[in-house]
Design a protein that fits this description.
heterodimer; A: alpha/beta; 6 strands; 35% helix; globular; B: alpha+beta; Immunoglobulin-like; TATA-Binding Protein; 39 helices; extended; cytoplasmic vesicle (chain B); Coatomer_gsu (chain B); ER-Golgi transport (chain B); Coatomer subunit gamma (chain B)
């Protein structure tokens, strides 16, 4: 009895929530360490930029509310020991955001290999991918075309792929990302 | 309208036709399926909680989860961090801590936990701290240390307690990091929350427990203040009694006063803890306990059964030591016999039995009779135990007490209960000889209707052993023989042994027993028939003396003979008569086996055979025998080791040899020793070993003559020489012709120290000062590759072959140490060695060795041996 009432109630709350907050979505943010994943989520939520961040050990889950969309973000650690667990958190999300440090050309190859290793997985089929070349405020940062090329995004077929250059520090292009993301909300 | 609860109860009554546990029928496979709900995009918090509960239930029930299953559960559980539901989060913490996957996986939750640790919700903070401390490695610990330190003094009690408990767990692994938080922990001890205070005190003790002074200080400081928490107070009492135990009598007076004051504490738990502390001290004296007994007496009439029980238990313990002191409370204790709690009543009765005078015994037994039918076996056992003690105390009451015991022997009861009665009776008649006959007759009545085979056998054995010395052994034969007619094979066999034993010791009953035994020859059971047969044979053939010796044979002797019989191929039966003789002289082998066998018997287990060789009988006493030195590697075909024996005018090398190859026999074994130096020893005499024994040891000897009182240093190259013969695998006989062969073994050295033995020196310093006239030489700053001083001392001891007369034991973690060795030469002169050791770095010890000897050459020889 109690359970039934509860599940009805939950359904009702979900309907109300949909009415007020509109849609919901779940994204996962991955990329090599120090690419700016946590900073990107901070920027997305409208927070201020911090210079020295502690490396994420494991993951953090946060819920943002932007443009009438409730976004659940899984912010995963980029250190090598955590890369094996990325796939577990990518299953079933609405979008995968892959953050690349556009100013660290020497890491492009590792970043590309990790990305394509992940895209090959059956569980990630058809999940839209957003690649971000972060730190565009730095002088050594490459252009967006170069990021597309370096990551060999042409190879990533069978899914929607988009690439932007952003700067979490100056909040450059963050609004565009948000728009792209919310367009994929359910 | 009915209230919802009443409604619920009614509904439950209807359903309760078969009331099921909520955990009934949980299956791992199904639960693992259900656990998929953790991955749902819209979490159902309630369902997730239930699934976690089921998983935890399975886990604590010992259900095995494979590594992949654990990984799978763990990662799906981590998804639940998205939920803000407090109860679910709580379960989440719990399951992470419980299933605890491998460290490289569990680290994934670190960041989330660190976030929770700084959350505003107390529940999150407290639990995140607990989990984090469980999973943290040293790197993470460094990162969170600051937060943990703060959490210890958090204003929320839950958080503070969680941090303290986690720190306690951490201190087991790494106490140093926790020590850095001392000031915070100290602050927490003064917390207003009882729980925090308790945990903080426990932790404070944990980090200081290896520092006695600091514990003394802590105890002294806290005994002056009033701790808010009764539990903390109990801890303090425990620490106090520890300090009292370790300290000198005169310094602990304030602590005794403290313990006494704790007995007036308003919390009963503190009162009991202090009583326990006082009563568990060593060398208690009655006057110290007067106040304790007064407090206990008050507690005996407490309305709480637990208090009554606790008080009664202490009194019971004290009753052993101070019966007079306790007798003041006898009136109160007697009231407790009728206590509805049977544990308390049993304790009361047993206490009274211990303390009550002779007069009270009968009255008490009467009360017990009415009480026994109501209690369980374990309580009955306690009472039997108390009756036994009473009986030994009041020996002249044994008739009453024995009849009491026998009454209960006849009544229904479990095995252990019955066994305890039987054992009590046995102890009684061992302690009180007058009680023996009565006891035995009770026991023989008991086996009439004993339902436990083991117990019957025990009693029958006892009857066989004890009844021959009673006035009328024949009386018991009837009881015993009845068992043969009525019982199972085990008891029948035991009865036959008992009868045989009686017949052996009572010549006059022999005829009657033989008649009875013959009737048993047609028993359906093998063992019974065999025993009857053997007993008859014994009684008919052998004298009582002989037969008696059969029963007293050591089993080892019998086993030896049987083993030998099994090994030999002889068809001759074993003659039991020879066992006695062959057990005393093991060498009398009954079979006529090969040479190998004989060798086996002769060779001694102790490694040197020199005492058994006639050649050395005329050489005088051995001045010194060295340690055994192995000359071959392990796992080689032959094991050879050497012992050097120094006689007055001979140097003997004993080579102890053992063969490991079954198919080959080595005969005429000798060792050729070639001197490599220039010591000028003459050609030695060689005593060969006929056959190198298989798996056992035999010796060959090389004997050099030398001048009395001289020391020789020499190195010898050694070769084992022998004639190898094949063994016929079927008959085991040696083939006649073999071939000569040799086998090279390691070199043997003769050192100056071989001529020295440990001298018995009363006062080393005195001998040292008397030896001024000797030659002294010192080698300093010798670096030894040992990491403790202790190892260095044993290093020198093994080089010299004896242990130091001063400085044998090294205090733990000592960095400076002096060891003195006193040696004696065959001339009676002394060689004195002083070794000063100092630990300079973590991995090396530096030694300075000073040697005093009568001659300069000897002094240098000794130094070179021990400093090489």
């Amino acid at each position: 009895m109690g359970d039934d009432a509860r599940s009805y109630w939950d359904a009702f709350v979900a309907w109300l929530r949909a009415l007020f907050f509109g849609r919901e979505m779940e994204i996962v943010v991955i990329g090599l360490q120090n690419a700016g994943k946590t900073s990107f989520i901070d920027a997305l939520s409208g927070g201020t930029f911090e210079e020295d961040m502690i490396p994420t050990v494991g993951f953090n889950v946060r819920r943002l509310r932007r443009d009438g969309v409730s976004v659940k973000t899984w912010d995963l650690g980029g250190q090598e020991r955590f890369r094996g667990t990325w796939e577990r958190y990518c299953r079933g999300v609405d979008c995968v955001v892959y953050v690349v440090d556009a100013a660290a050309k020497e890491l492009f190859e590792t970043a590309r290999n990790e990305l394509h290793g992940l895209l090959k997985r059956e569980t990630l089929r058809e999940i839209p991918l957003l690649v971000l070349g972060n730190k565009s405020d730095l002088e050594s940062a490459v252009r967006v075309q170069d990021v597309v090329e370096a990551m060999e995004l042409k190879r990533a077929t069978g899914r929607e792929v988009c690439c932007y250059n952003v700067s979490c520090k100056n909040s450059t292009n963050i609004d565009v990302c948000l728009k792209w993301l919310t367009a994929h909300a359910k | 309208m009915t209230s919802p609860i009443a409604d619920f109860n009614r509904k439950r009554d209807e359903d309760s036709v078969e009331e099921l546990s909520p955990f009934w029928g949980i299956e791992k496979g199904i639960v693992l399926q259900e656990a998929r709900c953790f991955n749902d995009p819209q979490l159902d918090a309630r369902k997730c909680q239930q699934v976690i509960t089921k998983l935890l239930y399975l886990h604590v029930q010992g259900e095995f989860f494979t590594k992949t299953e654990i990984t799978e559960i763990f990662f799906s559980v981590t998804k639940l961090f998205q939920s803000k539901n407090n109860n679910l989060r709580r379960m989440l913490y719990l399951i992470i801590k419980e299933i605890c996957p491998t460290s490289d996986e569990v680290i994934i939750v670190t960041s989330s936990l660190m976030k929770d640790m700084n959350s505003k919700v107390d529940l999150y903070r407290a639990n995140a701290i607990r989990v984090l401390c469980c999973i943290a490695d040293s790197a993470i610990l460094g990162q969170i240390e600051r937060y943990l330190k703060q959490a210890i003094v958090d204003r929320s009690d839950a958080v503070s307690s969680a941090a303290l408990i986690s720190a306690t767990h951490l201190s087991l692994a790494d106490v140093d990091i926790v020590r850095r938080w001392s000031s915070e922990i100290q602050e927490a001890v003064n917390s207003s929350s009882p729980e925090v205070q308790f945990h903080a005190l426990g932790l404070l003790y944990e980090i200081r427990k290896f520092d006695r002074l600091s514990i003394n200080k802590l105890v002294a400081q806290l005994t002056r203040t009033q701790l808010r928490s009764p539990l903390a107070q109990c801890l303090l009492i425990r620490y106090v009694s520890e300090v009292i135990k370790d300290s000198a009598e005169d310094t602990v007076a304030p602590l005794h006063t403290f313990l006494q004051s704790c007995m007036r504490h308003k919390s009963e738990i503190v009162v009991f803890e202090s009583i326990r502390a006082i009563t568990s001290q060593h060398d208690l004296e009655a006057h110290q306990l007067v106040s304790v007994v007064n407090v206990l007496q008050l507690l005996l009439s407490s309305p709480k059964p637990s208090s009554r029980f606790a008080a009664m238990r202490v009194i019971n313990k004290l009753a052993f030591l101070f019966p007079d002191l306790i007798s003041n409370c006898n009136a109160d204790i007697e009231n407790l016999i009728s206590d509805e709690n049977k544990s308390i009543a049993t304790l009361a009765i047993t206490t009274l039995l211990k303390t009550g005078g002779d007069a009270a015994v009968e009255r008490l037994l009467a009360r017990i009779h009415s009480f026994m039918s109501e209690i369980q076996d374990e309580f009955k056992i306690m009472i039997i135990e108390a009756v036994r003690i009473t009986c030994i105390r009041c020996a002249h009451k044994y008739r009453i007490l024995l009849s009491f015991l026998s009454t209960y022997l006849r009544e229904e009861g479990g095995f252990e209960y019955k066994q305890s009665i039987v054992r009590s009776i046995v102890q009684l008649f061992n302690a009180i000889p007058e009680a023996k006959e009565l006891s035995l007759s009770y026991l023989s009545e008991f086996i009439e209707d004993c339902e436990y085979t083991q117990l019957s056998c025990e009693v029958l054995y006892l009857l066989g052993k004890e009844t021959p010395y009673t006035t009328d052994p024949g009386k018991y034969l009837r009881y015993i023989y009845n068992r043969v007619i009525l019982e199972n094979p085990s008891i029948r066999a035991a009865s036959i042994s008992a009868m045989a034993s009686i017949a052996v010791h009572c010549e006059m009953l022999k005829g009657r027993v033989l008649v009875l035994l013959r009737r048993c020859l047609f028993d359906s059971d093998d063992e019974v028939r065999d025993r009857a047969c053997a007993s008859i044979a014994l009684l008919e053939k052998a004298s009582a003396q002989k037969a008696g010796s059969l029963t007293t044979h050591t089993t080892e002797a019998f086993e030896n003979v049987l083993l030998k019989y099994c090994q030999s191929n002889s068809d001759e039966p074993i003659d039991l008569q020879t066992i006695v003789t062959s057990s005393s002289a093991n060498s009398e082998s009954t079979n006529s086996a090969s040479v190998l066998e004989q060798e086996h018997v002769i060779s001694d287990i102790s490694y040197s055979n020199i005492a058994s060789v006639p050649y050395f009988a005329t050489c005088g006493d051995v001045f010194k025998s060295s340690m055994k030195i192995d000359l071959t590697e392990d796992e080689t075909e032959y094991k050879i080791s050497c012992v050097k024996h120094i006689f007055d005018s001979h140097i003997v090398f004993e080579f102890i040899c053992s063969n490991t190859i079954k198919e080959q026999a080595l005969t005429n074994v000798t060792v050729a020793m070639e001197a490599l130096g220039t010591s000028g020893l003459l050609e030695p005499t060689v005593l060969p070993l006929n056959v190198m024994p298989l798996t056992s040891y035999g010796s060959t000897f090389v004997v050099f003559d030398h001048e009395v009182g001289t020391q020789v240093e020499e190195r010898f190259a050694c070769t084992l020489k022998f004639v190898s013969k094949e063994i016929d695998p079927i008959t085991g006989a040696l083939e006649d012709d073999g071939y000569e062969d040799e086998y090279s073994i390691e070199d043997v050295e003769l050192l100056a120290t071989d001529f020295m033995r440990s001298a018995r020196v009363q006062e080393f310093s005195q001998v040292w000062s008397e030896s001024e006239s000797y030659v002294e030489n010192t080698f300093s700053n010798i670096v030894l590759p040992h990491d403790t001083v202790e190892k260095s001392v044993s290093h020198f001891s093994s080089l010299l072959g004896f242990s130091p007369c001063i400085g044998k034991t090294v205090t733990r973690n000592a960095t400076l140490h002096t060891a003195c060795f006193a040696a004696e030469l065959s001339t009676g002169e002394h060689v004195l060695i002083k070794i000063a050791l100092s630990m300079e770095s973590q991995s090396s010890v530096t030694a300075t060795v000073t040697c005093r000897a009568p001659q300069a050459q000897l002094c240098n020889q000794v130094l070179s041996v021990i400093t090489c």
